[in-house]
Amino acid sequence: MDNKMMLMIPGPTPVPEQVLLAMTKHPMGHRSGEFGQIMAEVTENLKWLHQTQNDVLILAASGTGAMEAGIINFLSAGDRVLVGNNGKFGERWGKVARAFGLDTQEIVAEWGKPLNPEDFKAALEADAEKQIKAVIITHSETSTGVLNDLEAINRHVKAHGQALIIVDAVTSLGASNVPVDELGLDVVASGSQKGYMIPPGLAFVSVSAKAWAAYETATLPKFYLDLMPYKKNAAKNSTPFTPPINLFFALQTALRMMKAEGLESIFARHDRHKRATRAAMRALNLPLYTADECGSPAITAVMPQQVDSEQIRSVMKKQYDVILAGGQDHLKGQIFRIGHLGFVCDRDILTAVAALEASLVALGYDQFTSGAGIAAASQVFKAG
Fold first, then answer.
1. I want to staple 145 with a disulfide (CB 3.0 to 4.6 A). Which of 47, 156, 203, 299 is the partner?
2. Which domains does the chain have, with CATH numbers?
């Protein structure tokens, strides 16, 4: 049956009907007063979502564009940086840093394991001459479903006193608590196709006063991703370049939906879905790739032992129109990932688990009692 596809991947994520309908409106002039009103509203609501009074700037880019902007606007070639690497995206930020000539030291953890805050503490405390200019970390590592301990790592950065903290919050913003002002985060990057519940195409960068001070001496080349024109134009409820107008319509609607739900309810929903999904996988005797204490509220990675993960994904898609994500790099064919962030409800989790049970039966996997996954998830939902 056409048009029944169900996205259960960590991005793009499902889009609410009212957001899709908002995008069908005819575009308006981006220099018009009407667009200025939309810009003012979304900027205010983005600050609400980020829990900040800092600038939150909007780019026509992906999350990678937001992170690149976060790196090149506040650093200079030769600057020393620490990059947390425990997955595909941590690895990517190391590559970006080196591409721009930064003196890059990686703090590495095994894929599927969280970054150790004590490793950051040791490196930062050893920097007696305060040469480290920034610490770059991924909060929720999309490739493995690990949630790194942002608060602990940030505490060590603050003790250093000089370094900026630059955070990839692409799959955590809107799924878990990222209190920008409370933690004093300097640069926080995110993308529209995750917790924001809209299609890909917009990226967001939160910038602190400390980061803007660093901007004044940063010399890395930039033009389209130079954040100062975005800051100046945002103050006038405008943009420096032509924005994707209809994505702003979508953003306006999605942020209104998020405000109506409330931050605490959003975070509780994502935590509930994480716990229900993990409980279901255990009931199906499918090993989880990450430990409970570091599991992301956005993604659950599963490493089946007696059935092929790519076959699972294939049956789920062909028979039930449920799309799961595969593993990346050396994990390709080793894990599958269930996305449960953004516009996802309890029913979606139950549907995905039921389809997974049926797919396992079709593949001859019999290491579970029929209905066990649904029962385990239901118990989590019953408890709240």
1. 299
2. 17-260 (3.40.640.10), 262-383 (3.90.1150.10)
